[in-house]
Amino acid sequence: MHRLRAGLVGALTASMVLAGLASASADELVTPRLEPGTLTTRAEAGADTASEGAGAARATGGGEATAATSAPALRTLDAACPAGRVPAAGFRDLAGSAFVREVDCLAWYGVTQGRTRTTFAPGDTVTRRQMAQFLYRLLDHNVVLPRWDGESPFPDVPATAAGAQEIAVLASPQVRSLFGTSVVAGGTDGRFRPNDRVTRAQMGSFLARVAQGVARVKGATLERGACRFTDDAAIAAAHRDNVHLLCELGVAAGRSGGRFDPGADVTRGQMAAFQMRLQDVVVDESLGVPPDLVVPLWVDNVDCVGHRADGTSRRAFCTIQAAVDHAAARHSDAYPVLQVVNNSTDEVSRFYDEDVVIPSGLHLAVVGDAEDETYGYTPMYGSFTVRGASTELDLAHLAIHTRNRDQAGPDGVGLDVPDGGAVGVHQSFVFNRGTAISLDRGAFLVMLQANAGDGVVGVHLADGDALLVDATLAFAQTGLELWPGSSLVSLGTHYERLDVGLSLGDTDVVVADGEFHEVAHAYVHDHTGGVDLRAVRDANRFDTPTRIGEHNGVRSLLPRR
């Protein structure tokens, strides 16, 4: 039985999207409600390495054995780690290990580089620092994560320490808003305790919150069942529901006698198995793809070869549309990632000048140049139109402008999703003299640290759902416009120089907070129900709502492939 209802499918590989962002993984919130003995502080043996942190003392303990009450079968890994497609990682210390396949697959996804090039140390225990690094890398393959600001929120994790970036990003308010849950947090004293060992109960919460985050970003919902363990009473309340969820997903089934053994340490081999089973859920539910289905295609409007292009860096396409057409013809069953670069120093030719149409059924990403010395993104004149309800598009590090600001009419759209579809706009700009972004017929939008506006409407939802995190809507008559049947979750949004911040029709649900600067009217609406907005404290700031968990706005939109 599937435990996820499928939604937005794109598996945007952040190693290709967030240039310069080191790989890492998610950690789990450890709350002060832990039962005595669940977490013990022990010093690690050895110094941290650049790849996965310090080595820890070896621990004994096997994998999952006897299923818990009403537990589904453990995942087989056939979706995430297809037979015959996963190369051997080359770790010589896996002989006799029960986790050879899992570790090989973990390396295939780029989650581990091993202790050394030839050793993995499957019996070593996992620390909180290592957990953050492992899970960040897994998330990095499936979603776009926020940028790191170079600071660490924890006094015991200096910004220069191994794992600092991974821990800081996963502890950020942006991730909390994006995932709808805290993925990483410190203790009551504000410390992260990076060298503490991870127990099985804590591991359950780490992985469950990662599952919840991926599902939310992809427009899916998690369904919880009745999976239980004979030692449920020993699982701390802070972790019990999360452990049950992993059981329902087939990620953890327990040990002999139907026990979960929540206080036992987690070894590196076991963690490889847990992570790959979770990834198997993601891939099986069409929320992600295996690494060999991520296909990079290069686009360069200066150094290109026209009709002889094949998408390699030496034979790049001259236009984005040419690369899209090639992807539709050759890679419709994969996940093409278009790397859009610009080697021109001329201010005019730097801009791509085209209106791009994404054909029905295609799932791809268009990624600009985050390392551009002048802009920090790839600029273009024109627009994107997404056709078809099953089409999915991720945009990152692009600046999409109206082609001719002086002549553009009010009806233009920078990013148009008229047929359903799903789009992600990450760390990009969409400016248009008409409407910057428009969604209709059940379309789904995720905006992360992105900007829209410069015309009549920033984001228009005729019949769609949107999740906005740390976005900016500026220089327009209306920032967000919602028509009947639409829903919105908007957290940390900045509204700047607008006549109206939010214009709400007979909207299903709105959960919103943000800051207002030079906005004539924070919001207007023509009905009294279905809206979760607090009064404006002053002319510049919304009061933050608290009923975030009660909204029903991010719906399951797309059929399974």
Mean pLDDT, as a whole number? 79
CATH architecture of the largest domain: 3 Solenoid
Q: What overall form do the CA principal axes indicate?
A: globular
Number of helices: 9
> In which range does the helix fraction lie?
10-25%
Q: Give me the count of strands.
A: 23
Q: Supply the number of structural domains.
A: 2
- Main sheet overview: 8 strands, parallel, barrel
The span between the termini is 17 Å
Provide the spatial order of strands within the biggest beta sheet. 7-9-12-15-18-16-13-10
The level 1 CATH classification of the largest domain is Mainly Beta
If you consult CATH, what is the topology of the largest domain? Pectate Lyase C-like
Structural class: alpha/beta
- Whole-number radius of gyration? 24 Å
Low-pLDDT windows of residues? 1-61, 406-410, 527-561
Beta-strand share of residues: 15-25%
Structure commentary:
The protein is α/β, with parallel strands linked by helices and 561 residues long. The chain has 2 domains: 191 residues, no CATH class; 258 residues, 3 Solenoid (Pectate Lyase C-like), CATH 2.160.20. Helix content is 18%, strand content 25%. It contains 9 helices and 23 strands. The strands form 3 sheets. The chain has an 8-stranded parallel barrel. Strand 22 and strand 23 form a beta hairpin. Helix 6 packs across helix 7.
Question: Keyphrases for this structure?
Answer:
561 residues, 9 helices, Pectate Lyase C-like, disordered C terminus, two-stranded antiparallel sheet, alpha/beta, disordered N terminus
